[in-house]
Amino acid sequence: QVRLVESGGGLVQPGGSLRLSCAASGFTFSSSRMKWYRQAPGKEREWVAAIGTTGGDTNYADSVKGRFTISRDNAKNTVYLQMNSLKPDDTAVYYCKAARFGSWGQGTQVTVSS
User: Which residues contact 39 (CB under 8 A, 6 or more apart)?
Assistant: First the structure.
């Protein structure tokens, strides 16, 4: 059974940084492309970033390009999202997902506010 547990969210001031983690289990993590999504209040869930199986292939939404970095540690079955230069518009619940499965974790709340 696919299980995804996100962590690392919190309250941060504009311009600050956070590092999100997603611990995965129940599938062959090292063979799975992984993605981060986010959902702001009253908005649709949107894709944020994706990473290939070995970590060398990354893609980002235009809204986060140059500020966010996705990475993974296949030995720990964990995918990360380093978020720098955070803006109030980044406020959302952040979710990770294995590209080939439909399961979602519970998400982690990120709030950017002064």
Answer: 45, 46, 92, 93, 95, 107
Percentage with pLDDT > 70 across the chain = 100
Burial status of residue 40 (CB atoms within 10 A of its CB: 0-12, 13-18, 19 or more):
middle
Q: Has residue 59 got a pLDDT over 90?
A: yes
* Both tokens assigned to 46: 């949107």
CA atoms within 13 A on the CB side of 48: 30
Residue matched to tokens 């966010």: 68
Token pair in block for residue 92: 């959302």
Spatial separation of the C-alpha atoms in residues 108 and 22, rounded to whole Å: 9
41 vs 45: CA distance, rounded Å = 10
Q: Which residues make Cβ contacts (< 8 Å) with residue 108, sequence separation at least 6?
A: 6, 7, 8, 9, 20, 93, 94
Task: Give the pLDDT confidence score for residue 52 in this predicted structure.
Answer: 97
